[in-house]
Amino acid sequence: MKGRLLSIAFFLFINYSWAQERTLTISVTNTSFQNLIEELERQSDYRFFFNPQDTDTLRVSLSVNQKSIVQILDLALKNSLLHYSINTNYRYVYIKSVSPILTDLPPGFFSQSSHDSSSREFTPFNEAETIKADKPIIIGSRNANTRKDATLAGTIKNSKSGESLIGATIMIENPTIGVATDGNGYYSLTIPKGSHQLKIRSLGMKPLNQKIIVHSDGRLNLDMEEDVLPLKEVIVESTRDQLVQGLQMGLERFDIKTMRQLPVALGEVDVLKTVLTLPGVQAVGEGTVGFNVRGGATDQNLILYNDAPIFNPSHLFGFFSAFNADAIKNVELYKSGVPAEYGGRISSVLDVTTREGNKRKWTGTGGISPITGRLSVEGPIIKDKLSVLLGGRSTYSDWLLNRIPNSNLKNSKAEFYDFNINAHYDVDSKNSIAVSGYSSSDEFKLQSDTTYSYTNQAVSLKWKHIFNNKFFGTLSSNYSNYKYKIQSSANPINSFDLTYKLQQITGKADFNYFLNSKQSLSFGLGSTRYDLAPGTYLPNGEASLVTPDILQREQGLESFAYVGTQVELTPNLSFYGGMRYSNFQNVGPHDLFVYSGNASREVSTIIDTVTFSKGKRVSASGGPEFRTSLRYSYAPSTSLKLSYNRHRQYIQMLSNTTAIAPTDIWKLSDPYIKPLIGDQVSLGIYHQSRKRSVEMSVEAYYKWMQNFLDYKGGAELIQNHHIETDVLNAKGKAYGVELLLKRTAGKVNGWVSYTYSRSLIQTKGSSDIETINRGEYYPSNYDKPHALNFIGNYRFNRRFNMSLNVVYATGRAITLPVGKYIVDGTERLIYSDRNQFRIPDYFRTDFSMNMEGNHKRKKLIHGFWSLSVYNLTARRNAYSVYFTSENGVIKGYKLSIFGSAIPTVTYNFKF
Amino acid sequence: MKRLLALILIASACVDPYNPPEITDSAPVLIIDGFIKTNAESKITLSWSQNLTDTYAPTFETQATVWIEDELGTTYPLVGNNLGSYYLTQQQLQAPRYRLHITTADAREYQSNFENVYETPAIDSVNWKLTNNLGVAFTISTHDNTRQEGFYKWTYEETWEYRSAYAASIVFDPTAGEVKPRTENIYQCWRTGGNTDILIESTTRLQENRVSEFQLTSFLQNSEKARYKYSILVQQQTISKNAFDYWKQVKQSTEDLGTIFGPLPHQVVGNIKCTSHPNQIAVGYFSISSVSILRESVSYLQLPIPPRYITQYSTCEAYEISPNQVSTFTGPYLLIDPIYIGNGPMLSGYRYGSYFCVDCRFVGGTTTQPDFW
């Protein structure tokens, strides 16, 4: 604010208590307000204070003769929203938009219903950070039609970079109507005509309050200013109102700035590590990127990177997630109440959206930590129209390895990189196109001659068209692939190459229609084609005697259509009803083994092979998936939500290890491996304190999972031509309660969450070999009943903050030996029933400090340091417990991934 | 894989000893160890499993009735030695399939599935080679043209010569209270051991039924085994695919666990069931086949001589006792040799050392030279 109106809070004044003095004569035609003031100052001894932003569009035509300054100002400001106050002692005149400067009047004292100059608004002083765009924006023409409501639509953008803002909330308070922007920053809001104060909130942005006068439907694009201090009051302005007033439950949303505050291992801001701090999300151990949401398996999470699914979201065995944090704009995790547009996995949706790139100028960000380096550059190709963002990340761990003086490491290597490119093009006000590409790759070799490598690639293309203010659609297509390779060259006779490959391509159309202020509709349809080459085992080198062994390819087609509607039944009661219909076909060419009727499926019970030709249907399955949510708010700050969801999943990961391993195989549903079906009922109570800085919630859920995969003991999953003989059909159930207490504002903020949850499996086949633990329910590998998380941030000043993270969880369930015996002169073990014991409890404390450089705007490079210590107490948390026979004697061991405190210093920069 | 972690985190990952909470509810399980050889005497040992924390020797099932039978019902009893081992002398076993039957002393009945009789091919070679990390590795190669794919299990018996720290030439006779020349050799010993891991290999992924240089065992070039002579006797056995899977699982569930991507441990089920008590499990896999054996040895003359051998005797020390005190010589010590003043014949004393350092039998070897030496 460059104006002469300074610190308004300290002025007391007397309005209209002014005796008549000198009269003035003014005659101007269509002149600027500035000119009028200059004229008044010339003729009188008054000094005028005003904000030029409030007045720069005001044109004045005035012809007065011998009038007092009061009369002149009354006339001049009659048709504007400006107010004046006069201090006769100092001969000062203050001109301010809308509200005259008030002190103690309560909110609601003034009517907000009309838009004339008498309309006043109470602005609490503690919102001094708020940008007051006080000049009202007039939308539509006054005489457009006689409807009571009008629809406002547009895009909310970051003023600095021109990027659209996802999940920004736009609301008016009288009556309370609000919406959030979608994935493209687009919103559509239907409100009564008239004058309103629009409140726009978005994470990491300065709150924006915009006065509007709505005459008829219209477009309103707004820019929000970035909060220059990203470390300030990070956590979730936008979801503040969302938590209680939104219909959505079980949704966690955070942006890169939230993530940056959390202490991290190995110096990288990590999406998946942040997800793990949320209630209801757990991992089997450290160094694993696979996560379990509410008792679901790691493959039951749909991980989307700009709409394209990512199959192995980890680097370096899970020490890093495969997403470059610099490119990320927003992350959403749906634990329940998943809207109908998402489908394909039964447990959760993790939707990672990248930034569009700065549309106004070229900038870059980067960081250097002891293990990785990263750099992103973004900028406009056509200003305000077309932007690109390029980012890359790589490790120099390989270089480090070579420097460790240990001969065992000589033959080892571990390297990864990822690369992303995004382009966003605003064709015109109705059309925009976004393209995104992603590639990540890992390769490692462990003091042996076997090299493991894997890659994830994803491309997505999206065209958005706005038909009108109430209706828009998105046409998109995405492609992703995942492959891994194991290459052995130890012995020329046995050298081999083993590859696995999965690709999928999706095309879909999504539409949103805002019927009125009370109801919106979304619908769409699409189809996904899967193509898998589940195993190609080939000789490597001339001397190799390896028999080529190629598993037959698998093809599948998943089609879906959905419709969902959100209705506000009464101001207190909202409802979301959605239905998704999905259908999956496993199609030929395919050779299918047929097993004899009653016997359990084993190689010896194969009685026939049926051949399906190309395109022939091998199996089909599908059905409706209902998604519903209900919100009832029995007080403005308290609400109750209820939801029921069903999901179907047609591709599952086969894994006989605890963590996601690079050799895990994804398998399509077929006549033997039935699609997973998950149902979840959840109930939550949400409360916000009066100042909305403290949130409390309790969510409870119960889940049922059908056709869960379990494995026979010692199941062989790699290069298995008849995988159905090694897997078992199981049922799963999970239930739990999540308690969350969160402070979102102030110098001290953070959250505490406690979760009680169970995740159980029942495997009850027709024969002994197909039954586990006599068919009783047993805990899954990731069953951890008690979990407590604490995250606290303390901001010393604008440049320095500290945070502390404490995690406690019950040890996961494992199978332990209950007896021993000697065979071949060596002690061996007899194991218990599956998962009857637990590893020791998990406890970890992390600490981090972020230090920013000064905030001079014109600096070439803005740098900030972050220092973190992971596992501050150096507790050796068990990753697993195992028993092994060494020189004929059984010994028990506990494997810890992090055996000490791990300090890391990272330098991040922006230019 | 845990080595890998250590390497990535720069020695951050770690493995600590761990003792689980008391596991009490384990009823003993019958353990069946051994298989039937068609071309040699066979031995099957029966014992009961123990709790993990038990330190005493396992209990053997000494009073069982054990036999094998063919599909026509002809039975061949195994003769017990009252110590838990049951023997079947070499005899003509011409039926295609046999099964094992056991009745324990407390009248539990155990029975295996019928198993095919396998013919084991001859061992092509057992070789030793020097390895990169200053070791000596023994490998085996074999092939079988009669069968498409082969599943092999090996066991070996290793024997090596070693010598105690000091060659004792005298002995103290406590009854006479005097020093006498030692007649018996307690300096040069031979020690015998066996494999302590499960050695199995399959050729399913190869175009030929051929095993090439499968590593059986290795030791360091400066270790005791490399000091004089080392000999290994390898026994090869062809097993069924199911038996291979069984042994692989046993191996995995005891040797390969706990790694990051390692498989989950589980109960391993063999081909022997308790027919009288279906809820009881039994551990073991009954196989029947011929065996082929081959011996190979290596002497220190064939190996690079290291700067220094590191043996169990590396820390041994000898002490001295004067001739007039020798009558009081007691404790866990043995005399080594006399010490003379200058070139003699004046005696200045006797050297002595601990039993461990002087008597090579103390660590478990024998002074009897094996007949194959």
Beta-strand percentage of chain B?
35-45%
CATH class of the largest domain in chain A: Mainly Beta
Which ranges of chain A are low-confidence, i.e. pLDDT below 50, for 5 or more consecutive residues? Answer: 1-20, 99-133, 229-240
| Main beta sheet of chain B | 8 strands, mixed, barrel
Assess the beta-strand content of chain A as a share of residues: over 45%
* SS elements, strand count of chain A: 57
Which outline of chain A best applies? Answer: elongated
Total number of helical segments of chain A? Answer: 7
Count of individual helical segments of chain B: 3
Spatial arrangement of strands, main beta sheet of chain B: 2-3-6-5-4-7-9-21
Task: Outline the secondary-structure elements.
The complex is a heterodimer of chains A (911) and B (373).
Chain A: E1 24-32, H1 33-43, E2 47-50, H2 52-55, E3 59-67, H3 69-76, E4 82-87, E5 92-97, E6 131-139, E7 149-158, E8 169-173, E9 176-180, E10 186-192, E11 194-201, E12 208-214, E13 218-219, E14 222-224, H4 237-245, E15 251-255, H5 256-261, H6 271-275, E16 281-282, E17 292-293, E18 301-305, E19 308-309, E20 314-315, E21 320-321, E22 328-334, E23 348-354, E24 363-368, E25 372-382, E26 386-395, H7 397-403, E27 413-426, E28 431-445, E29 450-468, E30 471-488, E31 496-516, E32 519-539, E33 549-550, E34 554-570, E35 573-587, E36 590-595, E37 606-612, E38 617-635, E39 638-649, E40 651-654, E41 665-668, E42 676-688, E43 694-711, E44 727-743, E45 748-762, E46 777-779, E47 786-797, E48 800-809, E49 813-814, E50 817-823, E51 826-831, E52 837-838, E53 842-852, E54 862-870, E55 880-886, E56 889-896, E57 902-910
Parallel strand pairs in A: 2-5, 6-12, 7-13, 7-14, 18-23
Antiparallel strand pairs in A: 1-3, 4-5, 7-10, 8-9, 8-11, 11-12, 15-22, 16-17, 18-19, 20-21, 22-23, 24-25, 24-57, 25-26, 26-27, 27-28, 28-29, 29-30, 30-31, 31-32, 32-33, 32-34, 34-35, 35-38, 36-37, 38-39, 39-42, 40-41, 42-43, 43-44, 44-45, 45-46, 45-47, 47-48, 48-53, 49-52, 50-51, 53-54, 54-57, 55-56
Chain B: H1 2-8, E1 14-17, E2 30-37, E3 42-48, E4 65-70, E5 75-80, E6 85-88, E7 97-103, E8 109-112, E9 115-118, E10 123-130, E11 135-143, E12 151-163, E13 170-173, E14 178-181, E15 188-194, E16 199-202, E17 210-220, E18 229-238, H2 241-255, E19 272-274, E20 282-283, E21 288-289, E22 291-299, E23 319-321, E24 333-340, E25 347-354, H3 355-358
